[in-house]
Design goal:
CATH topology: TIM Barrel
Strand order of the largest sheet: 1-4-5-8-9-10-11-12
CATH class: Alpha Beta
Helix content: 40-55%
Largest sheet: 8 strands, parallel, barrel
Strand content: 15-25%
CATH superfamily: Aldolase class I
Subunit structure: Homooctamer.
Number of strands: 12
CATH architecture: Alpha-Beta Barrel
EC number: 4.2.1.24
Number of domains: 1
Distance between the termini: 53 Å
Pathway: Porphyrin-containing compound metabolism; protoporphyrin-IX biosynthesis; coproporphyrinogen-III from 5-aminolevulinate: step 1/4
Radius of gyration: 23 Å
Keywords: Heme biosynthesis, Lyase, Porphyrin biosynthesis
Pfam families: ALAD
């Protein structure tokens, strides 16, 4: 049955009467007004570029699950650091794909002064001394089982791992790392690393704590990138945070702050914007998020299939982090976003 729309009731009240004269579209009507009232902004200063490393010289390897991202040798990583500096990106973060023959049950290569991470840091600092270098002391790239710590009888042992992480952090600082970013989620590792750095004369080296790293399904492409996807025995739920828990994440962050963290990180990013907001509101600390490999891959894959505008979705995802309270974002989009931002 077709019913005739009765405009009589609507005509009794004008839109101005309905809204009380409040017209939200006034501030949206032109580009200049939209820019004038914009609450959050994104700039190259907000970006940290994660770089994957392989041994050798002048080599790169495409990562199938991360279109546009490559593993690179230290010399190319140094060239990328030069590119980052020219684009205005403040820092890069390095993640190694360690040769299989160097991986063992305890991740002992993490304690080699000239391992892949430390080689790369030295080279970058020689070429681009003013760019920030952020390094991770987690053991998963170095272990034969893919866990972030030392495995004993099927259990990732906390305290023994912490000792090794602290020693590795000092070696990374000696190589020139500006910020140590422990992603392992062992209890007490922030305090142990802070003590080790201070005791060994590196009190100026900061700690960006992966304060809330969740047992997420979004890490798959990253594990391909560092070569651990086929190594992992079991899962990481005994030390990463349950995705269902937000109060626990806040308590974890509070402990890391007590132990000496200078900055906090939330990982993954977009699915955990509520955690970013809670940490920023609770502690007022410099707070970062890692837009992880799975988040990157989803946007890239959808764009390649023509399902969405890749550039627009990328920038929209990055501004979401700023809106939630982030001071910066680790993102594989960093060079692409920086180039776009320089044109705007």
């Amino acid at each position: 049955m077709n019913r005739q729309f009765d405009k009589t009731a609507l005509n009794r009240r004008t839109v101005d009467e309905i809204t009380g004269g409040r017209r939200m579209r006034r501030n949206r009507r032109a580009d200049w007004t939209r820019r004038l009232v914009r609450e959050n902004s994104l700039s190259t200063n907000d970006l940290i570029w994660p770089v994957f490393l392989i041994p050798g010289k002048n080599k790169s390897e495409d990562i199938a699950a991360m279109p546009g991202v490559q593993r690179v040798t230290p010399d190319i990583a140094a060239r990328q650091a030069e590119e980052a500096a020219k684009l205005g990106i403040p820092a890069i973060a390095t993640f190694p794909n360690i040769a299989p023959e160097l991986r063992d049950e305890t991740g002992s290569n993490a304690l080699a002064a000239d391992n892949l991470i430390n080689q790369t840091t030295r080279l970058i600092k020689e070429r681009v001394p003013d760019i920030g270098v952020i390094t991770d002391v987690a053991l998963d790239p170095f272990t034969s089982h893919g866990h972030d710590g030392i495995l004993r009888d099927g259990i990732v042992v906390n305290d023994e791992t912490v000792v090794q992480l602290a020693e590795a952090a000092v070696l990374q600082a000696e190589a020139g790392a500006d910020i140590i970013a422990p992603s392992d989620m062992m209890d007490g590792r922030i305090g142990a690393i802070r003590d080790a750095l201070d005791t060994n004369g590196f009190s100026d080296v900061g700690i960006m704590s992966y304060a809330t790293k969740f047992a997420s399904g979004f890490y798959g492409p990253y594990r391909e990138a560092i070569g651990t996807q086929d190594l992992l025995k079991g899962d990481k739920r005994s030390y990463y945070i349950d995705p269902a828990n937000s109060d626990e994440a806040v308590r974890d962050a509070a402990l890391d702050i007590e132990e000496g963290a200078d900055m906090l990180m939330v990982k993954p990013g977009l699915p955990y914007l509520d955690i970013v907001w809670r940490l920023k509101e609770s502690f007022g600390m410099p707070t970062f998020a890692y837009q992880v490999s799975g988040e990157y891959a989803m946007i890239k894959a959808a764009a390649q299939n023509g399902w969405l505008d890749g550039e627009r979705a990328m920038l929209e995802s990055l501004i979401a982090f700023k809106r939630a309270g982030c001071d910066g974002i680790l993102t594989y989009f960093a060079p692409e976003a920086a180039k776009l931002l320089s044109q705007s």
